[in-house]
Amino acid sequence: MSIYIAFISLAISLTSIVIVVILYRDIYQAVNNLIDELGIALIARKKYRRIKRYILAKVICKDDVDIRKLSEDVERSVNSLLGRILKMNCSLTIISFRPDLNRAIFRVVGDGMCSKYCLLALSLQHFISESCIIIPLKSSGLLSRLRRFTGYRK
């Protein structure tokens, strides 16, 4: 008697699995037909905004530093920390450097998380053969606000 109950429950389970698979296929086809009919692309629905953020940082070095060498080293080390896929979405460049104040302003262009990733990468890395460190001081969406914050002029 218990064997019959086991076979019946197995048959009911298999039948329910088949019904779910058939319904899933039908619903998937109906949704695809609706999307094709309305001309909506799934990729076009996601809006990607590129946001610019500016980071004011203090650059502490043992020796005098060349801005080109620092820029290349920062980009290389951020690439190695973030990886190539994240770096494709994030762009980090030095837009201003004042050796007398030991201050630099970085521009981060990308989605909202890029500035957080770049802040993390700048905080954790040593640059130019580990003779420089960069300490992020302030992040802002407006370059003029950063310049006003520190009395930093061109």
From the N-terminal CA to the C-terminal CA, the straight-line distance is 91 Å
State the name of the first-level CATH class of the largest domain.
Alpha Beta
Reading side by side through the largest sheet, how are the strands ordered? 2-3-1-5-4
Q: What fold name stands as the CATH topology of the largest domain?
A: Alpha-Beta Plaits
Q: Helix-strand pattern, N to C?
A: HHEHHEEHEEH
Helix count, per DSSP? 6
Number of strands: 5
CATH architecture of the largest domain: 2-Layer Sandwich
* Residues in helix, %: 40-55%
- Low confidence ranges: none
Judging from the principal axes of the Cα atoms, what is the shape?
Answer: elongated
Oligomer: single chain
CATH superfamily of the largest domain, by name, is Ribonuclease P, Pop5 subunit
Structural class determined from secondary elements: alpha+beta
**If you compute it from the alpha carbons, what radius of gyration comes out, rounded to the nearest whole angstrom?**
27 Å
Mean model confidence by pLDDT: 81
Query: How much β-strand is present in the residues?
Result: 15-25%
